[in-house]
Amino acid sequence: MSGRLFVIGTGPGNPEQMTPEALAAVEAATDFFGYGPYLDRLQLRSDQLRHASDNREELDRAGAALSMAADGANVCIVSGGDPGVFAMAAAVCEAIENGPAAWRAVDLTVLPGVTAMLAVAARAGAPLGHDFCAISLSDNLKPWNIIENRLGLAAKAGFVIALYNPISRARPWQLGEAFKLLRDYLPATTPVIFGRAAGRANERIAVQPLSQADASIADMATCIIIGSTETRIVARSGKPDLVYTPRFMAGGKR
Predict the structure, then answer these.
(1) What residue stretches are annotated with the Tetrapyrrole methylase domain (predicted)?
(2) How far apart are the C-alpha atoms of 112 and 85, rounded to whole Å?
């Protein structure tokens, strides 16, 4: 008899931002697969087992979890943020598509979580108040020229852009190149929000104009939101500035 497979997100890291649905899935599961630091966020019972693996082993992790669920266990795959945004839900679906028939019989439940761009946006104000998109800067799974093309088209179309996987030790140059490219399309004053560990004790939120945006302050735990030509900054005496994108554009109906 097939068991169950839950695919959950822990949110950006603050336990209070994990959804009740995800917490219920954690309570029901016996085995947990995921990247070690994400599994560390869970408070597991002594009878619940961890199966930690490297962050780049998504398909192997998905296959191992599916095999265990197909054998009758209640299994949980754990992502940070939302499991469907540059995370494990897509790897699980890919594994099911290309795997044995038994994996298609698994009772699969994907539960939404709070993804990084939503947590960072909430800390800054409302930069996602109008149309926006999300782009991963990692060229591990797609070529860099595709990323460059998407960045240019998104900026030209007027989207606010959330950047995931902006920089790493193996990819130290790509964020700087992205800023350089976007300066050809956007005003120098366009706000760039750097959000690291939003909602956690070591949270760091910084806002810089695009002309001065410093790629060196970002790492893989940073989500970056780049405003559109419509995005505004509201200064407040003694309080952090608010960054928001108005709901209405010129020519729209109110």
Answers:
(1) 5-213
(2) 9
pLDDT tens figures, 202-234: 899 999 999 999 999 999 899 999 999 999 999
Q: To which residue do tokens 């899935």 refer? A: 25
Using the predicted structure, report yes or no on whether residue 97 has a pLDDT greater than 70: yes
The CB-side HSE value for 244 (13 A sphere, CA atoms) comes to 13
Please report the sign of the dihedral spanned by the C-alpha atoms of residue 123, residue 182, residue 87, residue 50.
negative
- Tell whether the model's pLDDT for residue 254 goes beyond 70: no
Asked whether the beta carbons of 106 and 66 are under 8 A apart, the reply is yes
The span from the CA of 197 to the CA of 109, in Å, is: 27
Side chain identity at 134, as an amino acid letter?
A
Q: Please tell me what DSSP assigns to residue 80.
A: S
Tokens encoding 130: 């109008």
Among 114, 145, 170, which residue terminates a domain? 114
Tens of pLDDT, residues 29-70 = 999 999 999 999 999 999 999 999 988 899 999 999 999 999
Mean residue pLDDT of the chain comes to 95
131 plus 87 within the same structural domain: no
User: Do 10 and 86 reside in the same domain of the chain?
Assistant: yes
What's the rounded Cα separation, in Å, for the pair 124 and 243? 6
Burial class, 231, CB count within 10 angstroms (exposed 0-12 / middle 13-18 / buried 19+) = buried
> Using CA atoms, how far apart are residues 245 and 127, in angstroms rounded to an integer?
5
- How many domains, in total, are found in the chain? 2
pLDDT at 90: 97
Q: Is the pLDDT of residue 251 over 80?
A: no
For residue 46, what are the contacts with CB-CB under 8 A and spacing of at least 6?
Answer: none
